[in-house]
Please model this.
Amino acid sequence: MNLIAIFAEILKYVAPAAAVLLGVKFVMDAQQEKDRTQREEIFQSKSLKLWLPLRIAANERAILFLERIRPDQLIMRLGISGKNAAFLHMELIKNIREEFEHNLVQQLYLNPNGWNALVQAKEELLAVVNQVFQEGNGEDDALVFARRLLEKTAILPGSPIQNAINAIKSDFQAWAKIGQ
Model:
């Protein structure tokens, strides 16, 4: 037998087997891709069910923190009767910092933009409280200091606290749309 005839005889058996193997490979690859996609969808669904309550709670806590450090809320909660400006100033700073430290863990579940806006709002508020205190007299009555602080925060262009609340809400709504 000549070489071409032998090659043709071998090709007669190998070609169909190779075609079947390639077909099986393509079918198996497609099935594996389908299975992988299905596993990812299940994982995302379970992940969303796990993370959604945590993210909701963190966003709620972050907004609650921001509401609690609003100067008018702080002053009402701390009270001003019988205090001087220096004591109220110290209490305001202490309370803002304690509230922040109590909510530090929320950064795990918040979008970085929202967390950064929250930190910036806190820092800007601390700066305003310090500035108003330095502009006055530490022996002033707390009522005078509180009034000046409220006046100063009322004239700020764009409330840092409200901006942070809006950023947190926006980030959460964007995340919630992705999770749907």
Remarks:
- The mean pLDDT is 88.
- The CA atoms of residues 39 and 141 lie 65 Å apart.
- The longest helix spans residues 3-68.
- Helices lie at 3-68, 71-78, 85-102, 112-135, 142-154, 160-179.
